[in-house]
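Q: I'm writing up a methods section and want to include an example of the input and output format. Could you take the sequence below and give the corresponding predicted structure tokens, formatted cleanly so I can copy it straight into the document?
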Amino acid sequence: RWIYDKLKENKEVNGNFYENFIIFLEKMDKDLSLERLNNTTDLRKVFKELTKDKNYKHENANLGEENIKNKLEEKLNNGTSTEHYWFYKLEYLLWKEFKEKDKYFKVSKNKGDGGLEYPFGNFDYSKIKDTYRLTRKNSIEHIQAQSRANEWKEVQDNECSEKCNIDCFGNLTLISTHLNSSLLDKSFNEKRNLIANQLERGTIESLKMLLVYSKYDKWTPEECKTHHNEMIELLKNSLEN
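A: Here is the clean output for your methods example:
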């Protein structure tokens, strides 16, 4: 009901209801995200305050860059226990970045210059903005499979500070149970080939996963950490003033 009321309100006041509604939703999501960074959350309270006062500012809004980053690290490096919400939020941010700046999904003509040439160089990334749909997923996938954790044995006691272990956010993605089952126990290269086949059918389940398999031709704790830092930075920037 509140969605209908808000759309009606925006349309009647200034006619720019779509643009204003997107702004409202992004502001609401930011405040709810900041609330989720707390150990005890009251999302209903934040929602009520925001719908009552358009100038509402969450108490965590001035946490500062380092504190927000630390809180995100605490929330996101939890393997299959990581809240699904943060994957959904990241998917939206990646899609929006692609729509507006083409920062992450830029195909390179020359391999090795930082763009996405390998191994999906023939894939038309411009299709993403029109074909990708953010839908409900229910299974957290480990890009470096849990059954292959011994391959990253030297970093398993690491807490994602210098290199990633398999439960760090950089090694995780949210996908369907069906796709997760098809990827079970497979190597990075085997998974990448399956994702390539999925692309040929016009299916994209996760932009985060697509980014990994597009950008990296191998998957080590170092590559994982690079990706991890990029995704944490994107989330952090969305929560700053």
